[in-house]
Amino acid sequence: MQSSRGKGRSGHRGGGVAAKYTDSTRHVQGADRTRVGRGVAAKCTDSTRVEGRQVNVQGCTDSDCSAGTVVGRCTDFCPASELKLRVRERLLHRYEGGGGSLDTLRPVKEYSRPAAGQAPPSSDTVRTPDTLLDCVRYLVREVLGPRLGVKEGHLELYDFVFDRLRAVRQDLVVQGVKDTTSETILSVCVRFHLLFGHLLVHHPSFSSHINTSHQLECVKSCLLLSSATSHNHMMEAVYILSNMDSPSAISWAIMQPKHSPKLQLCLAISEAYDQGNSVRFYRLVSTLPLLLLLASAKYCQLMCDHALSVYSKGYRAKNARYPVSHLATLLWLSPSSLSHMLSSKGILVKEGSVWWADKASQYDDNTSNSSQSVSCHYEQMDCKVKEVKDQLDRLVLGDHQHKGGVDKFVTE
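Predicted structure:
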C-alpha cells in the first residue's frame, strides 16, 4: 500500500498541531520542517506542555511579529492612514469600489508582510476583535457570496478575499486574541480554503499547495484554541481527513478523551486508507458532509490509484474481464469517468468490461505517483457543491443546513 500511494505515512509533512507554522514558503524550505512531525502527539501526551507552547505557536504565524501585544483600537475595516495612501495612489481593488465600480463596497485592510526596519503596528492601525469578526462576515456575505456564480472571476475573487483574510489573521496574532472570536474567524478561513481548493482545482494559475498550507495552518490554530475553550468537532474531522497518512495526526485523534461521531467516522476512514481497503474507504467517504468530503479529496485520488494497481495485478489471467459498472460502484465513480481514467492509464476498456490481461493494457504503477492536480472524484464532489450553490456563502460562514440525509452539514 505504501509503495503504490506515494510516500505513505512516514513521509507526510502535514501532521502536528503543536508544530504549527504559517508561511507557505517556509512550509517547504524553512528549517521548521524538522519540527512538523512532533506536534499533535505531544499535545495529547502532555497538555501542560502544549499550553506552554501556545504563545510560540501564535508567534510564528503570518505576521512574523516579535513585538509585544498590541491592543487594537481601529473600528474601521481599513485604517485611516492606509486608506488615505491607497486612495492617493489609486490602489483600491475593484472589490473595494476602485476602478469606477458602482457597487457600494468598502475598503478592507491589505495584508502587509513585516520587513526589517519597519515600525511595529500601532493601536490605530490594528482592528478590534469585534471589527475583525464583522469584517470577515462582510467579506463572505457582501463580496464573496454575490460573485460565486461567475466562474470566470473565481481566481480574482479568491486572491482578494485570501489577502484580506490573511490580514485579519495578522491582526488577531498581533493582539494575542485567543477566544471564541478568533476560533470563529479561523473556522471561516478553513472553510474558505476548502471550498476554493475545489472550485479552482482546474485553474492553471491556482496553487493548490499554498492553499492547502494555509488551510492546515488555520486548522491547527483552531484546534489549539478549541482545546482551551470547547471541542471543535468539525475542525477535528477536517484535520484528520487532511492528514490520513500522518502518524502524529492519527495518534492525536486516538488519544482524545472523547470521540465525537465525526471523529469516529474519520478514524474509520483513515484505518481503511491505511489498510488499503478501497471498498470500505469509499463506502464511508460517500457518507461525508460536503466540507469533510472536500478535505478528503487528495486521499480519494491516492486510494483510487492504489486500487487500480491491485486490480491490474489480481486480474491478469487470460480472458479475465471485470465489469466497468461494478468497478465504478466500488470506487465511487461514474462508469464514464472510470473508463476515461482507465484509458489514460493504458488499460483496455471494451464492451463494458476492463481487460486487464490484454497486451495493450500496460498499467504503469508510476502513474499513481505523478502529479495529478484534479481528483478523479471531482465529479462526485462537484455535484454536492452544486446542490448548495446558492448558499455557499452561508456554508463558508458555518450557518448552512443542507437538508439531505447523510449529506447534512452540521455546524460546530
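Summary: The longest helix spans residues 154-175.
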